[in-house]
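Predict the 3D structure for this chain.
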Amino acid sequence: MIRRLSPAGLLGLLILAFWVAMAVFGAAVAPHAAGRIVDMEVFLPVSADYPLGTDYLGRDMLSRVLHGTRYTVGVALGAALIASGSGLMLGMCAAVWGGMVDGAISRALDTLISIPSKMFALVVVAAFGSSVPVLILMAGIIYTPGAYRIARSLAVSVNAQDFVTVARARGEGTLYLVRAEILPNIIGPVLADFGLRFVYIVLLLAGMSFLGLGVQPPNADWGSLVRENMAGLHEAAPAVLMPAFAIASLTIGVNLAIDVLGGGRREGDGH
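Done. Predicted structure below.
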């Protein structure tokens, strides 16, 4: 499969793999503790001692970025799994059962999708705080309707195919139809949509953190790192540029990898 990847797709997978590895092992390989002040000088430039400079308190930015990766990637990944998983299950149920079930699910999620995402996020954070579980659940709920629409449209299309009609005529149950006939034929596009949900959630959470409503001190994600080092923007300090570059590189890497995640499966591979 690697030989068939385009250079852009391979680059995207490498970037994505790097940041996932940093989310898991970043805290262990970071040269300093996240909150340790390593120098009395603030906003130091890139150097051999501090590869990404220092922040507004004199902390090592490389360590801060590596420690923050687990919150940016981890929270977004958890929320994307909730959104795509819920959307996939509800979409297949609506497609297979149809009728009142389809109508009830669709109208309920249409109501949710009509609420602007940032407004919904602000209300949830104001009501329940901005703990990591709340952020994960909030972002997952916001992006479930979009994932549902994609999954439902794909499942409805496959459900109308002849091989599904034949399976239903020979007496196969709903669980079999979903597991063996519909899911294998929509998994590629669903994975591609999962990548898009992940990017949307990264950007939403970064925006929330930039407003001070995301991950709270002493922890910090990349959006928080940009916000707290804004004083160094006028002198182009690495402390404010590097977290922004990390966000950009992750989103670009995921977008480049989406074609790979969406490939490798063929539509209509039914019996």
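Residues 264-271 have pLDDT under 50 and may be disordered.
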